[in-house]
Structure formats: structure tokens, C-alpha cells
Amino acid sequence: MKVKCIRSKGIAHNSYIIESDGEAAVIDPRRDFGVYLNHLARNELKLKYIFETHRNEDYVIGSQSLSKLTGAGIYHGSNLNFEYGTGLSDNDEFYLGHLKINALETPGHTDESISYIVSIPSLSDEAIMVFTGDLIFAGDTGRIDLYGDKHEYRLSSMMYDSIFNKILPLGDGVIMCPAHGAGSVCGGNINSMEHTTLGFEKKNNPSLQVSTKNEFIQMKMKEKHRYPPYFKQMEIYNLSGFHGSKHPPSLSPLSATELKKRFSQQSHVLIDTRTPEDFSTAHIKGSYNIWLDGLASFGGWIISHNDNVILVTYDGYNCLTKAVKYLFRLGYDNIEGYLKGGIESWYLDNLPVESISVLTVDDLKSKIDSNEDIEVLDVRDDNEWELGHIRGARHIYVGDLESTELDISHNKTIVVYCSTGKRSSLAASILKRKKYKNVYNLLGGTTAWYKAGYELI
Amino acid sequence: MKVKCIRSKGIAHNSYIIESDGEAAVIDPRRDFGVYLNHLARNELKLKYIFETHRNEDYVIGSQSLSKLTGAGIYHGSNLNFEYGTGLSDNDEFYLGHLKINALETPGHTDESISYIVSIPSLSDEAIMVFTGDLIFAGDTGRIDLYGDKHEYRLSSMMYDSIFNKILPLGDGVIMCPAHGAGSVCGGNINSMEHTTLGFEKKNNPSLQVSTKNEFIQMKMKEKHRYPPYFKQMEIYNLSGFHGSKHPPSLSPLSATELKKRFSQQSHVLIDTRTPEDFSTAHIKGSYNIWLDGLASFGGWIISHNDNVILVTYDGYNCLTKAVKYLFRLGYDNIEGYLKGGIESWYLDNLPVESISVLTVDDLKSKIDSNEDIEVLDVRDDNEWELGHIRGARHIYVGDLESTELDISHNKTIVVYCSTGKRSSLAASILKRKKYKNVYNLLGGTTAWYKAGYELI
Amino acid sequence: MKVKCIRSKGIAHNSYIIESDGEAAVIDPRRDFGVYLNHLARNELKLKYIFETHRNEDYVIGSQSLSKLTGAGIYHGSNLNFEYGTGLSDNDEFYLGHLKINALETPGHTDESISYIVSIPSLSDEAIMVFTGDLIFAGDTGRIDLYGDKHEYRLSSMMYDSIFNKILPLGDGVIMCPAHGAGSVCGGNINSMEHTTLGFEKKNNPSLQVSTKNEFIQMKMKEKHRYPPYFKQMEIYNLSGFHGSKHPPSLSPLSATELKKRFSQQSHVLIDTRTPEDFSTAHIKGSYNIWLDGLASFGGWIISHNDNVILVTYDGYNCLTKAVKYLFRLGYDNIEGYLKGGIESWYLDNLPVESISVLTVDDLKSKIDSNEDIEVLDVRDDNEWELGHIRGARHIYVGDLESTELDISHNKTIVVYCSTGKRSSLAASILKRKKYKNVYNLLGGTTAWYKAGYELI
Amino acid sequence: MKVKCIRSKGIAHNSYIIESDGEAAVIDPRRDFGVYLNHLARNELKLKYIFETHRNEDYVIGSQSLSKLTGAGIYHGSNLNFEYGTGLSDNDEFYLGHLKINALETPGHTDESISYIVSIPSLSDEAIMVFTGDLIFAGDTGRIDLYGDKHEYRLSSMMYDSIFNKILPLGDGVIMCPAHGAGSVCGGNINSMEHTTLGFEKKNNPSLQVSTKNEFIQMKMKEKHRYPPYFKQMEIYNLSGFHGSKHPPSLSPLSATELKKRFSQQSHVLIDTRTPEDFSTAHIKGSYNIWLDGLASFGGWIISHNDNVILVTYDGYNCLTKAVKYLFRLGYDNIEGYLKGGIESWYLDNLPVESISVLTVDDLKSKIDSNEDIEVLDVRDDNEWELGHIRGARHIYVGDLESTELDISHNKTIVVYCSTGKRSSLAASILKRKKYKNVYNLLGGTTAWYKAGYELI
Questions:
Q1: DSSP states of A23-38
Q2: Do C128 and A193 count as a contact with CB atoms less than 8 A apart?
Q3: C320 burial class (0-12, 13-18, 19+ CB within 10 angstroms)?
Q4: Has the ipTM of the complex gone over 0.95?
Q5: Domain assignments of chain C as residue spans, ordered by start
Q6: Where does the Rhodanese domain start and stop, copy by copy (chains A, B, C, D) (predicted)?
Q7: A2-229 belongs to CATH 3.20.20.210
Q8: 3-class DSSP assignment, residue D305
Q9: What is the pTM of this model?
Q10: Per-residue pLDDT tens over the stretch D61-79
Q11: CA torsion angle A180 A182 A185 A189 (round to 10)
């Protein structure tokens, strides 16, 4: 028995390959499924089952392509009308080499959520491992807000039962394999442990330290999560099984001149994935700045599935391939090209660049202390805002900024901040597109502000 | 400018990736095209062109799948009615980054054969590299027998013109990149150099050391090549563009019992890819023995595209994956499974094994000298037979053995030989299937026989 | 926090890399330490600590080379006078990124055995993972016989305390990472689980299902293990820190003629790693047959550290590299070369081969039933022999055969068996070297015998 | 016969592995020799020879370490008193599998320079490949200035003879394998072809288009090359065989606070390898900016072998590993650590950052046109300066800037430019260290200036 975790950075997603005696199962395969095929080939394995723990909202699932190529069956929960695969109920049972895999319905995150329990009948009837999907994570539990406010009570209540009456009773010594790690938009406080057990979570997962079901429900219903617009598309894709391209789009190098020509057309979106510092010095007018590792989390707020995307990345370092992969996983198939040679090729061609000034926290403090007429904009999320923000700031979440009508004069100086300077750089690039001219990005954000000993209210 | 050669063992095929400034072209892609996609992704390249040098008879070409996934156009000669791609004529011209690629029609091996010349206009008008397909190889020229006897004169004549009037005049300093290396069924005497030039070949390629066109034609028309039955299928596939599975079939582990059950059905072919020595000691009744690296050359003589193939390989060493890949390249998509655990699992289950005895050359010499009543069968090809064989032997090429009605009594002792003991082990396995009971394989074949100082006539 | 297990096939050894925030620790590094350096480089990690769980008897440990190249400190138990590194006591504490690692003395397998407990202080005081060395395995506990009979009581008693009073109290939810997996000579019944927990082992490890300390001690003292002669050398090397070559010896291709010349000299040992079936048909006189995956377990019974080793392997399949690696891990640095082209090149050169006949279990049954005058030799280990053997057989463990004076006439027919045919093929090759002429290997051994329904007494 | 080119980016160095029949030779191995060992192991090769074409001045050669680990002999020219290896003369001959390798003394670049000719005696007496070291490159010939002015005539003269009387006569069809590709400091105009032949070079290499020996000598003596200070150290190391660390130093993550503490000590050098744009926005006071791919060419002008180096790189993208590798190849073993988390961790900690402003070419043009009192500094090399520079600029080569006493007032505004903005960013960082406060970097340098249609004189 071997279990291999395939981690997808960006969306912080975990999929798993279970293998035993030449047979394999994959749990929640991602769209770029080459990683599974390579593993199967290298280890001479036959893929027998594809298990899904739930529909998934944050990425396009690769089950159907993988199934078509390998002949493996797809299985998932039965409380949702999937247009493909087979619905399972409690105790449905599978054999994989010398392993037994049992389905266990564990609704809560969604109605159809299901867990998979692995045991080795020849050794013991007890479970050795459980795949919990988005029910429990290391240090957190799944969000229950996806169906809207009306369903939060119902889902929280089911989640309590799933966790406390079905999963935890499997035993402390069971290794727990969740569908997400730290950084996922599917949980707020997932920690960075890559290995945990039901016993460890029972004692240490903050979200499980409740004494009554009601306490659990109240806690869950107070949580605040964001729902990026691309989720809708993921739900549609994953319900029907996505039939788009099976391979990340190929990368067309565009010269500076060619990029300029295309970008002037409508429905083209220019995403610059360099660091905020780099973007600050010189960028192409009209481009969004989403730092590379934030692309999977924030691309979905900015890019529509109908847009033609053009990328500006560092030249080299494989940033381009990473960016395309991140977007591919979110179902973006139309990446039209990238600026060959990076931003340097743009300015070597003497094409015009724009800049965004940065402020240090000391700079901002002086401005505030001297009552300069500035607008301070906090683009962090609600939880962060509530934990403490700079006095006088106004709060608009970065994800909402594009669609928000701002009642700020275009001549006013705006200082944008987040907790580091990354999300605020995206915000600054949005403001520049909205014709604001005097936009500053706060270097280090609230983290540096706090370090400097300045007040957060 | 970079050129990478992708060598496919077994069929000894060379495909190439040319790259320049973020753009790439592939020449004669093989069916398992993952190798190109990986290279493109790793090096952040856009595939722009797929060039075919000719239809290819010895493997399934992967152009169409690769084109579909990348959007690259397919190009080939215009003297054949391909159902896909674009036909080219002399001097058609392509730009790839800072490279220029020119088509040059070079019929001879086939009518539509075409070569591709690479130059770097910014440096020089002269060619630096030429892709010659099956026209010239290192140490040999392509076969001209594929259309049958009637066409040999015509093709040889065209080949002479293509080589002497079109390719060699490009200049001695041009690097030559042929479509095959040593071991290919597309040429008899290709040598093992992986790098050569027109200058080197002009002086040293035995097949170019002729003083007149007529001498060349006579030489070519005397060559003897075998035409394995699967070639027909390759031609059909490659003319229309093959729409079969794009991915090697996955590998079903079969227990000894399960294999026994399936193999008893009709239309199942059991291929044992172990060494002749291993096969000799113990094998499953009815199985063919084709040593692993011979599978690409001899599988096509034995396996029909309608058969269900079951494999016996060594357990481990990645033999299985190799075997499947070799067969996949020849268009065999129905590999039903393999014996899990190898032959050991068969005999551990106390299922019956058969053996084939081996003889040393001394053993055979004694038998012959003492006039034992044995049949000695030479299964090498015509050229080898004519260069010298054991006195009293009968000649049937291994590829013809399956389909040949033998006028040999089933009780007679048969000693089979080739040049080493590998092809003769395949022959021995065929004879066993034909109910011959006393079959011996000559260990070391004519090579050992000759070393021992025995006569070859 | 990430933990990566590096599995060394052959010796079934597990070493581990723990990483957190750019820092790493390695536990029980093997001699061919490139795997760690590559991982460190690829993940941009600084190696901070090298932890040893105990001296190790079954392979050469790579701590010192790794320490020299990286500057990391070496740590181990203090109850043995290591000539390098730092001795630890209970509760010695290390910090690695945001992890805490605590030493816990857990004698039993050896006096200096020590475990390492990992916790994440920011999340919890409780352990999440424990590295148990050779104290507990998945499904077994470590052997306690290494110091000889006199110490077995003492060691078993300490082992009980270490397990039941120190390790298990850490909690059911602790992930357990032992130093060996299935197939190790350091435990008899280790199972093939690659992931386990203290909770799972507490309930399911057969060796922990005792009700009293005394019961545990009695059980342990009844176990029988073999002590291969090379262990002595490993203990010497690992006590002082081995200063031999840091890199597997390079591979000299020897032509058949050259091999013949060298092998005729003294102190050369010829190891043929092909399968028993292959060896059976043709091998070089005087060679030992140890199938490749058995080389790590049985090479140490046959090869002295002063021998010059020459290898015969399959040509291709990377068998050679594997064989050299297996031997390198056991401290064998003088691998002089290998037969280029494999056994085929030997017989193509018309050099003489020998063969060993195989018998099926039916063949043997007939011989026994018809009272043929044969010697039947069982070369399995004591436990296997006691569980059931063929009537009339004599028992000599394969590892003892080389050094045992046999009172069997050289003309007698000997049939050797084990449980499959592999160890018996080694035994047969030893007997051939001892000038026995009529040696047969039983294909399928007791497994096939039992399947055939024949009696084991 | 296979030849694999190992390209080392940064120094644009080519080393080669030649293999034939299980034996291998390496030509000019680099210091981080793992790449050769891996290749040898993966392909089951025995390293037989290590050939050096000359001493090498631009990197530390790895011959001795490689020799020690593999037992292969080292060979080089005999006109220099190497403290290791064996000196060769014309026609010394080696056999590698079925290849013959001949030494050919080809002085010119240095006195001891030697070439290696490969032929395949079984096919032809003629050469198929030649390894020319620093004698000829694709599109250029080696520099002849390393021994100082007095020797230029002598070396040029010898170079002419080596090329025209020894190498080119080998034949047009010979594949040429030089020791450097485009971007090397060992040649000024090497082009980006990765494959060339003597025939192609003879016709197209600008440096070979001379009609007399004297013309060649005059041309060579007019060339201008820079001699970075680290060359001296390379020559010492390579003459004696370097006994420093064999493995790139490991990477210590330093927190912002820790870095601050260490950097305040003497003899610490802080190298920031981010892009000029990134550095411009925020960097640590006192750091040098050398963009990553320029580190191998410009690190040697800045860093002494006694300095303790601390690195600032992007977090992720494997920039760190690349930077360490580049420096390791130049003999820098004391890389003390790197800023964990990149520059972000510095400013999140509210530690002070500095910035350098950029100017566009339009900005600079206005300043010049309006006669602002600025100093314009051209830091390109002599050849570039002479081909055209901005009117009024002063010329100091970037490599000389650190050691040059500037007679510019510290209050004056200085605009630095090169051809792109990279070398000028290094120059700007040097000026900042020299206490110049108003330093501007010209974005796009002369390339953008020229594109804008402004004059270069």
C-alpha cells in the first residue's frame, strides 16, 4: 500500500494516488492530469477507480479525461445530479489490490460530499486512512456558505454529524488526507502540516474544540468567506464534466509590437505576473498586476472565461509555464500569448511604460499625521479589516474593486494597502485602469505598519 | 538554434525538435507524442510546424494528435494524396524564429519523400543542416522496394538524382539528420553514428561510392529487404491520419488463473518478451517468444491488429512499459493485460510450464557429424543465408515461418538457428505452436558456430 | 512541515528528510547520499541536522560524508562509543524551522537506540510524528538478538519499556515512521504498509498484542533471525564512521575474453544476477546466482569485503546500476567490472556454458514416490522449515551452505528447494562450485508443492 | 557513438561527454560535476579519459574531482606546467570503444591549447568530429590577449597556423565542437548556433574571412577584451588543480534581522540578483545589483574570493540555486546565506529600503536638451562605446567602476546607461555605495535611445 499526494500549488489542492498490487485509484484528479498518467506508467499501474469527494468549486476536475484515457470508472456522492459517473452511498465497497475502500457519506461542505476509508482486510478491520475532501482540513473545517445564507444552518448541522458521528469515531490512529492545504480559498485557517491524523485533529484543530453541536453551528455560521465569480463556472463545468481542451494551451511568443496591436483590441486582458516591486517601476498601461503565486486565487476575480488573456512574466524561471498551468486549472483555455523577452523587450522597443509609486509605512504615517488630503483604501478581506485597520481608511475588498463604482475624485491621491503590498498592487493596477492618476501602493502593508509600532484600530 | 533528436529504440527511428526564439518545429513525430509536449512545456516553446519527410511504413506517425493539441500545421510531400496536412514543393519556405526552413523534394525512397533544409539568413545563405528522412542514412540509403519490383528502377533513378543533384550539392559542411539509426527495418546497413555530415557521407557512405547513375541503380536493385505484414496497416493509418487511441493502453495485471482463462479464448496472443534463455527453461504453452528489444521489429510479423495481446515480461525493470510502448508505436491498441508477477507467479501457482532445449554449437556439430536424423532450420534473412550457412540446413525466414506449411514430420528433431539465438527462439516458439515436439534452439547461432571454427557454406 | 521517505529497495530501509522553512534534517541517511543532496538543492534547503536512530548493522550509513559536505551536525544515542557525532539523552531538543524535535531514548533493538519526536509548538505540545528506527515497524518489532543469547532477556525487557512506557503513550494519533519496510533482514514480519500510526499499531501489530511484559519478553526470545557475516563489517564501519569511497564504483565493461582471464585469478567472485530460469539454461562455470532483488539480502552471505566482484546481469534494463548500488550500500567497493553485453556475449564467443536443470513439483513427487536415490535439500530459514517441509528433506540454510562441509557424495542427485526457486538457485550454484554434478532446482519450491496439494510435514 | 554537450549557462561553457560501447570520455568538465556522474550512471558507462583543451580562465575546472571519483586519467597540452594530469603531443592516440581520439596541438588562444579529433577506424580514417576548445567558436575565434600585449603577435600567428594549417584541413564535413557558446567572455561575437561544421565556419565565420596570415594577425590584435580580476584566481586554481569544496555550498536561510546583523560586519558582500526594475523600487542599502543571468559574467568583477557573500533573490523560481551554482563555478565557496522570503521579508519587517529612480530615454533627452546639469555615464565596453554613444557622456566600463576614483561631486545628478539597463543598474548600485545620492538608471539604454530615433555619436 502506497499513497502519494499530488499537491497543486496556487489552489493548494491535494489529490491522491492510492496503489496496491499493480492497481491504482485517484482521488479528486486535477485537470492537468499528466501527472497521474506519468505515475501510472512509471510504476506500471492500472488505474481502476477515480473517486471524487465532492463537486469542487475552485478548479476544474480532470476525472472525465482521465477516465476516457484509462477506462477507470468515476465515483462520487449521490446527492447531486452529476451528468457522469456513479453515485455512491454509505458502505459501498471497492477492492484495490489487497486494500478495501469504503464510501462514507459526509455532507456538510456540500450535500453530496463523501469520504473514502481505506483498510487492509488481511491485517485488520479498522481504517488506516481516510480521505475527507473539504470536510476537515489540518487545522480547519470546510466552508458551509456555498449555497447561500439560507443553507448555512442546515449544512453546519450536517457537518457536525459527519465529523463527530462518522469520521472521528473511525479512531485516533487514522491518517487523515484532506483535499486542501494551507492557502486554499476553501478554508480560512488551514495550517501547513502535510501529514495529520484524526487523533491529532480531534485535540488540536481549533474548529473541533466545541462542546456542543450548537456551538459548532454558531461558530461555522460566523465565518466569512469570499465567493470569487469564477466559482460559478467551475460548478457548471464539474457538474456536467468539462469537455474543453485537455492540455494547457500552447504559448505564443508575441513581440512587443504584436502585443501592442492585439491588446488594443477589445476583450483582451493583459495580466502581469511580476512582483509588485517590478510592476511598480515599469508596466504596460492597462495591465493588471497579479503576482505569480496569487494568480490561482485572484485570477478568478479578474478574468472572465471569454477573455483573451495575454501574459507578461519574467523571462525565464519557468514563470510562464506556471502561470498557464494555474489558469488552465481554473478553466481558462484562451491564453493567447505572452510578451516574448518580458517587459524588457517592451521598453527596449521604446514603447511607453507606466509606473506606480510605493510608499513606506513611515511615508504614509507622515502624510496622515500632516493631514494630507488623501484617500486610504484597505483592500484586505472582511476578517482582516475587522481585526484592525489604519484609522481613516475605507474598506473595499480587492476582489470587489473592479465592479465597484467609486465615489472618489479622479484627481485625489489614493494610497492602497493590504497586509503585504501584493493584493494592493493588484488593487492599484485596477485603479489605474479606472483612470485614477495618483495611486500609491503601501510597501509592506499592515504587517510593516504594525512592526513600526503604528496603531491599527 | 537548437536541434534535439528524439530516438525511438526498437524501430530505431529519429524524430527531431528544432527550436529558435520561442518557436519550435517537429519533424516526423512518433505516435507517443508526450515527449514533444514535455519538451515544449519545459522550454516554453510554441509549436509552429510539424514536418513529415514521407508517409512512413514502419510506425504510426503522431502528427495529427500533436497538431490537434497545439494548433501547429502539418506539412509533407505533395506526391501522395494524404487526407490531412499541406503538400509542399521545392523551395516552399518557412520561418522559425531566426531560422529559415526550405522544402526540397527528394523522391526515391517513396514518391512523396521530401527533405528540409535549415539555414540562418542573418549569418549566411548556405544550409547548415538537412533532414533527409529515409533518403540517406549514416552509412546507407533508403530502400526502394516498397512499391514492388516494377517500381524499383524508377525509384532508384529518382533517388540518385535526389542525392547527387539535390542533397550533396548543399555542401560538405552540412549536418545531416536522417529518420533512422542503426537497427531500422528501413535500411540494411545503417551504422551507429549519431552525428554525421554530407561531407562525411559523400566520402564514406558505401552506398554513395558509385561512379555512375547506372551503377547506383544496379546496386539498389540488388538489395533485399523484408516487408513485414504490419507495414500495410501503417501505410493505411499514415495516409489517412490515425484516429485510434492517443495514449498507450493501460496495463491490466492478470493473475495466473485469470490469464489462463483468457488465453484459452480465441483471438488472444500471448507474447513472452523474456530472453531466449529464460523462455527456454519455462514458459506458458502457446506463447511466442520475442525478446524485448526485438519486439518492434518482429512483433509486426506475428501480431495482427485484431488480436488481443497478453504480455509476459520480467517483473520489474520497466520491461512492461517498454513492451507496451513498442507495440503502441506499431498501432497495436489492444493490449489486454500482463501476467502479474511474471512467469514466477505462473509456476508458483503450479500451472504447467513448457521448455525448449538449447544446443551449443559443439552439440550440433556432433549431431551432424554422427549423421543424426535432424532437420536444421536457418531462420535468418536472405542476405545472411547467402553469406554463409550451416551445411544441410534448410532456410525459412523467421517472419515467414508462421504462415509457411512445413513438410516436416512432427516427430522429427528440429534444430533452429539464427545469428545469436534470439530470432531462432521466436522460431522455436512458433514451431512448438505448430505441434513440433522436439525443437532445439542453437545457443549463439552462426556467430558461435563461426567462432568455433566450423564451416559456413 | 514536510516529511519525505527515501526507500532503499533491497535492504528495505527507510530514511527520511524532514523540512520546515528552508531548513532540513535527515534521519538515518544511506551511503549513496546523492538523493539527499539533490532534494536539498531542488528545494533550496539547508541541512541542519543528521539524526541516527542507532548504529545500523545491515548497511553502511552515510552520515559522515553528508555532514562533511553540508556542515550539518550528526546526532545519535549515547549508549555506544561512536567515534563521531554527538550523543543525545531524553528530551534533548532541536528546532527546525517551526518544528521541535525531541530525542527519546528507546533501547531494545540495541542499547543506544533512540527515537525522534516531532511536534509543532505553535499548534500544540503534542507529538505529530515519531521516528522509531528499529524499535517498532509496521506489523513487527525489532530483533533483539544482535548481541547474542545472553543479552536477549535484557534487550527484550528494555524494548518493552521503550514501546509501552515511552512510545505508545505519545498518543494514538501520532504518525509512526520506522527505519525498515517489508523485506528487511531487521524484522521478520514487517508488513507492506507505507503509512501507519501508533494507534493502528497498538491495535493491530501482532507483536504488541501481549498482556504482560513477561509475555512480550518470552515472545521476543523465541524469534529466530539470521546473522549474515557482513553485519560484523557494517558494525565496524558505522561505529567509526566509514571512510571508504563516497561514490559507487564505476563500471568497467569486460569483454568475455577479459572476464575469463580475470576470473581465473584468485579472489575474484562472479555474481550472476539474472533470474533462476535464465541462469538455469546457461551460465559461466563457478558463478553464484543471486537474483537481482535478492542481492542486498544474500550478497552479504557470499561476498567478502576483500573479494573482487565481477557481475553478470541482463544487458540493459539498468540492472547493472542497481546491482552496484545494492552492493555499495553493503560496503562493497571493489566491483571490478561486468560482462559487457551480458551472457550472450559469452556464448557468442563460443565460451563454455553450464546449466542447472529444473524440476517441477510433479517431477519431484514422482521421484520421491518411486524412491529414487536422491538427496532433497531445504535451504529456507528455520522458521519456514518448522512450519512445514517436504518429507525426507535435509535442512541447511542457504546462507550457511557455502561454509558447511557436506557429507553427501559428489555423484548423488541433489534437489534443492526453497519457497519459490530463487534462494534454491543460489544454493544450486553453491553446490555446483562444490563440485556436485547432479544438482536440480525445484521450480516454484514449497509454494507450488503446496498448491499441488502435496504434503508438507 | 554518441556525443552529448553539457551547456553551462552564465559562462556559456560547453563540456562534452563522448561515449562508445560502455566507455566514456569527458572534455573540459565543469566544477559541479554531478551532471557527468549522473549521465555515466544512467547510461552504465565507465569514464576512461578526461580531456582538457586548455587551462581555462573563466571557471574552475572539475577534472581532478571527477578523476578521483572515477579513476579516469586527465590529459591536456604539454606547453604548460600543470601540477596534475598528463601532457600530450600531436598524434597521441586514444581508443574509446570503437572510436579513435587523436590529440592535435593547436596553440593560439594559449600556448598549451590542444584539440581532439574523433574518428571511427572501422568506417573511415577521416575525422568526423573535432573539439576545438577556445581556438574556434561558431562565428568567432578565441581571444589572444590573455598573456598581455607583448604576446599578442606571437599568439595570433600561432592561432593562424593552428586553424588554417591544422584544423581546417581536416575537411569541411567535420563537426566542430567548441568550448563556448554565445555570451562567453572568451569571445566577442560567438553566435547562437549549437551545431556547426568546419565547412560552415570556413565560409561563414567572419573571423576566418582573411586572405593572408598577416591580415588575420592584424585583425586579432585589434580586438578588445576585458580581463575580469577573478581570471587570475581561475588560472591559479586550474594550474594546480583546485582542492576546494567539491559541492556547492549549502544555503542558509537568514531572517531579515539576522541578515542585517551580519551585513553590518566587514567583508560581507550583499548581492541582489533581481531585475533592475525590482531593485529600483526597493533594495537593501549597500547591496550590489547583478541580474541573475549576468552573475557569471559580472560577479567576477565585484566579488573577491575572500568575501562572505549574502544573496537576495526572488523567493521561489529556483533563482537561489542558480545563483549559487553560477558563483560556485567561479570558485566562490563562501556563500554565507540568503535572505529568506526575499526582499518582501525585509520590508515586512519594516527595515529601511532604498530606491533608484529610472529615466526613460525621452526623460533623458529632455534633460539634455534643456541643458540640465547632469553627468551622463556610459558603462558599456570599449567596442560598444566606439560604435556610438550619447553626446556628452563620459565612459567608464562597469567592471572598472568600483576601483575608479571619480572626480564627480556627490551632489551631482548622474544618469547611468548601458545597452539595456542591466549593467547600468549594477553601475548605479556601485555609485550608491560610493555615496552618490542622485543616481538614475536609463531604462532601455542605448537600444531604446536608438529606437526613439535619437542620435548616437
A1: EEEEES-BS-THHHHH
A2: yes
A3: buried
A4: no
A5: 2-240, 253-348, 357-451
A6: 264-355, 370-457
A7: no
A8: coil
A9: 0.93
A10: 999 999 998 999 999 999 9
A11: 110
